[in-house]
Design goal:
Helix content is 70%, strand content 0%. It contains seven helices and no strands. Keywords: Membrane, Transmembrane, Transmembrane helix.
């Protein structure tokens, strides 16, 4: 799956690295995005109760998504797909750092106070800073990849929307922001599941699915 192979008129992307014998890293990276994203979405809508099981998200976001996206990033580097490596590496860094943040909060790392009132304020500040930082990173990634087919840009844009909603939830505690963030997280999963199906279909000899023309030619 390469930017240079976007087909005119369809915006589809063909995995040229497979033809070169190195395989297509997207076949691992795209599904690896899903477990962490689905788990985050389920937590945001209230299905996963992290109050009684505070570490419930860690296996999915750290091991399933963070680790295997890192593997996909390394794979992409090895087959010369720099843009793909950058995208998978960015998502890997997000999930791994989120897992580390959760571990730190649960285990009292980072010098967080033990007094409940002070502890809550410190955790809120740490989480707000984390989410805002990653919102800026993904907004930059969205702008930097406008030459990709529209499906990718849409996915990145919805990721930014999700982070903005989560930031609103962290700052003021309004559950509406969390619920909307959960819904947009599921939209992200749908978009990247569609792209994964396209990549796998092409790998198995099928036709490319429409991805939309890039915003920037």
């Amino acid at each position: 799956m390469s930017v240079s192979d976007a087909r005119p008129g369809t915006g589809s992307v063909t995995p040229d690295v497979s033809a070169a014998g190195g395989g297509n890293p997207a076949l691992l990276g795209l599904p690896a995005l899903l477990p962490g994203s689905l788990t985050l979405g389920l937590w945001l809508i209230g299905y996963l109760d992290t109050a009684t099981l505070p570490g419930g998200m860690i296996p999915a976001v750290t091991s399933s998504s963070g680790l295997f996206l890192l593997v996909a990033c390394i794979w992409a580097v090895r087959v010369g797909q720099g843009a793909m490596a950058a995208i998978f590496g960015t998502f890997s860094a997000f999930w791994l750092s989120l897992g580390f943040l959760l571990l730190g909060v649960i285990n009292g790392w980072f010098g967080i106070a033990t007094e409940p009132g002070l502890r809550a304020g410190q955790i809120q500040n740490v989480e707000a800073t984390f989410v805002l930082s990653w919102l800026i990173v993904f907004a930059t990634l969205t702008v930097a990849t406008l030459r990709l087919p529209l499906a990718f840009t849409a996915g990145f844009a919805v990721v930014c929307t999700t982070l903005a909603l989560v930031l609103g939830f962290v700052v003021n505690g309004n559950r509406l922001f969390a619920t909307l963030g959960g819904i947009t997280t599921f939209v992200v999963c749908t978009i990247y599941a569609y792209i994964f199906v396209d990549a796998m279909s092409q790998e198995l000899g099928g036709e490319a699915m429409p991805m939309g023309a890039p915003i920037q030619q």
